[in-house]
Amino acid sequence: MHGTSTQPSASTSGAHSGTAPDEFVVGGPARASRRYDVAVVGGGITGCATAYHLACAGASVVLAERGEVGTEASGRNAGSLHGQIQREPFERFGPGWARDFLPALRFLLDALEMWGRLDEELGTDLEVRTKGGLLLADDPAQMQLIEEKVRVEQEAGLDAQVLSRADVMALAPYVSERVVGAEYSPVEGKANPMLATPAFARAAARAGAEIRARCALVDLEMKGQAARLTFAASEGGRTETQVLEAERVVLASGDALAYQVRSLEPGLALPISSEPVQVAATEPVQPFIEHLLYYAGQRLTLKQAKAGTVLVGGGWPARLERGTGYPLVRLDSMRANLAVALGVVPRLGSALVLRSWAGIGNGTPDHRPVLGVLRRAPRVVVGLFPHMGFTAGPLMGRVLADLAVERQPELDLAPFSPERFATS
Ligand SMILES: Cc1cc2nc3c(=O)[nH]c(=O)nc-3n(C[C@H](O)[C@H](O)[C@H](O)COP(=O)(O)OP(=O)(O)OC[C@H]3O[C@@H](n4cnc5c(N)ncnc54)[C@H](O)[C@@H]3O)c2cc1C
To answer: Which long-range contacts (CB under 8 A, 24 or more apart) does 303-309 make?
Structure first.
């Protein structure tokens, strides 16, 4: 496997080619008089799914995105639909952490069920396939870790299985001869991130939501029964200030959440981490990889998209451009990531790598989402699912919409409360 292009600019536009930002309302005259039931801040999968559910519930809703819809993490991710405890934190923090993480895992599993119905619901083929995920091992120590992890997952009633070498070879004959066994998680799969967020945004707009791109929240103030939001809206090289009011606000703005809540609840310091990470994609090759693959010895996610391209990722570090903070691809990371991929699927050796891109991944220290109403500003709802927020996106949207219209979500949100990070 060898690369032809690693230019971040070219690759980044490639990563976004599925979005069509111009179809969404941009800027426009100041609408200080407009008052909405709910204003959603952030046009990633979380915000767009929230706007969709709100509009379907009959709320008047405006969504503001500072850039283009679906072009940050939600448009740059690797499209894995995760449904197992991730190997790396399990190895680092152990079974005690994993048991505390189980509510977040159940959240992902519920979200996975929603993914199965989304094509029909949103009227777009999102290329969702759930043939299962394989965490592959090539030495006995890795198998020991897998067995321990599967024990925790099975105790919680999850469908996770330990496979022998023979089982793996029967299920996925394309993996390396070196593989000695695996964990199999039948619910996992993949979807196309370039399609999903715009599809939510379009469906939200069809249901009556106003979607405003290039509209950055710069101030949020609570005024009695409403919130007053000030935006910097850009159009045609001009930027103007727009102000609107909303009865409720949903902040689905990624790591910007941390500073946005600070003025509303000074004692709440959300410890959201931001790391630049990258993905590489090969040229289209004959379909032969059915599963979402991970490797138990190193960071890796690997899958073949509907178009035949093979996406290789797993959280390898990218870098930030000095001055702009823009995430850029690191060649050393790409080489190392591809070497791990080749060790797992040797047949990829003849595939050209066509592009690579980087994005910012967000985390929380306990890997659980931040999801709930702010105690000191109860008209404001916040939502961020760390590391696997693409998988979680459809359910994040439904739960945030429920909270914004004061409908009790079916889930126990206590483990996800933002208040667990309150210092006063
Ligand atoms: C390279 C990479 C690979 C990944 N792979 C996977 C994967 O395979 N599977 C998986 O489940 N997850 C994956 N993730 C994680 C996943 O992409 C994210 O968790 C998810 O997209 C988060 O969605 P979001 O809508 O919450 O945030 P985002 O997509 O980051 O959206 C937040 C939006 O808020 C906007 N915003 C911020 N501040 C303001 C403001 N002041 N005013 C207006 N708008 C604002 C931003 O511009 C942004 O568009 C990956 C992430 C990266 C970076």
So the answer is: 303/78, 303/79, 303/80, 303/190, 305/79, 305/127, 305/190, 305/192, 305/281, 306/127, 306/129, 306/192, 308/283, 308/284, 309/281, 309/282, 309/283, 309/284, 309/285, 309/354
* Tokens standing for residue 217: 């929240």
Number of Cα atoms under 13 Å in the Cβ half of residue 295? 26
63 lines ligand 1 (CB under 6 A): no
| CA angle 281–87–190, rounded 5-degree value | 40
Classify residue 168 as exposed, middle or buried by CB count within 10 Å of its CB (0-12, 13-18, 19+): buried
What is the tens place of the pLDDT at every residue in 183-215?
Answer: 999 999 999 999 999 999 999 999 999 999 999
256 Cβ below 6 A of ligand 1: yes
Q: Using a 6 Å cutoff on CB, does residue 66 contact ligand 1?
A: yes
CATH code for the part of the protein at 18-76+195-270+366-421: 3.50.50.60
Sign of CA dihedral 385, 390, 395, 396: positive
Q: Give whole-number Cα distances, 16 to 19, 214, 246, 315, in Å.
A: 6, 16, 31, 19
Q: Residue 325 pLDDT more than 90?
A: yes
Under 8 Å between Cβ of 244 and 62:
yes
Place of tokens 């935006």: 231
Identify the band that residue 9 occupies on the pLDDT scale cut at 50, 70 and 90. Answer: very low
Whether the predicted pLDDT of 20 surpasses 70: no
Ligand 1 atom with minimal separation from the 80 CA = 8
